[in-house]
Amino acid sequence: MDTPVALLGGTGKLGPGLAMRLARAGVPVLIGSREAEKGVAAAGDINQKLRATGEDFTPVEGMDNAWAAARAHIAVITVPYEGQAAMLPALADSLHGKVVVSTAVPMRFEVGLGPVHIDVPEGSAAQQVAALLPESHVTAAFHSVSSAELKKLAQPLDGHVVVTGDDRKAKLETMSLVRLLPDVRPVDGGPLYCARYSEYLTVLLISVNGIYRTHAGVMLTNLPPDDAG
Amino acid sequence: MDTPVALLGGTGKLGPGLAMRLARAGVPVLIGSREAEKGVAAAGDINQKLRATGEDFTPVEGMDNAWAAARAHIAVITVPYEGQAAMLPALADSLHGKVVVSTAVPMRFEVGLGPVHIDVPEGSAAQQVAALLPESHVTAAFHSVSSAELKKLAQPLDGHVVVTGDDRKAKLETMSLVRLLPDVRPVDGGPLYCARYSEYLTVLLISVNGIYRTHAGVMLTNLPPDDAG
Question: Is the ipTM of this complex over 0.90?
Fold first, then answer.
């Protein structure tokens, strides 16, 4: 993949690890931030970490979200659910006709219960993105990938990523993006409606993480081989 | 485990496979049905299939749900979600103080979408069981185990079963029950509140099944070894 992938709000939790993994796979990554200076600083930090590994990579670039969205071929939203409704409307024109990947898991911690989901009026974070960006091809992916594990570059990720979406071509492009992460397999989970189940699954993983003190991921069993379709 | 496990509504989809697997592990299984004759017939059929394998097993017994509930040490509810509200109130006294395992996944198929969940007023099928059986120790498990795969006795199941519940002892007993299935590992998913995420996960698996024409199961990655707690 030699077309740019933008990480909108890429200076946060998921962005840096995802940027590093994709940069090592040769993808030109654009780190978008609310302020261009923050994006530039985060990109500098990421490139420095990548250089320290001694392995090949494509340097990442930092900029503001608007410019990242305008230059992107695919945009991945890496802000928490609470931030997306404020961020996306201004980017709708730049993202017109593009593949936009939702990764957010709407959740909070409740005393006595632990992690619980937040009800989203549109049904899921992904469907809210679709409502905010009606001219984009919205998919959902990467929910179950641990930000902490993503940053451990020496380790393969070794899990499955459920991808949902209503546009077939956008879903296939997202699945190709997932395949760039070492040892990660994309699994077609169905229409964007089903993104909620992938979001909820991550709440369950976070409950498990609290009990076992780990960063659990997920694999589906009994699947046919991935046809890289 | 030499104390009886009742499968309430055990003549349906999940019951026979679960009965066979547990019987092979030496568990005395009671197949409950609305009518005793149906329970007896199902048990006869199951025993015949088990005998045909040539392997050791503890014969299963058939009876009506009321008698199965009364004799059970642990009861597993194996009727679909739609049937539990009619079945359980009459069994509440017999199940007083006992471990009751919810397995139901409230779902339906919607044209153009595929499998979708059904909203449960109590939050999940498992929490509805807890509301209907306030004097029982309700846990939830087995959602993601394929009924079809359970019946393939020559094959290990090779997956994880997320167990949720509010009563620690009941949850540990349920996890021990799960360990009796060959190559299946129980994973503590948290309080009964989180049973919904295990139910939703199964809707996602059923969506995946439709796309890949399989019976997918689930494994979590990055867990510490099972301590058989």
Answer: yes
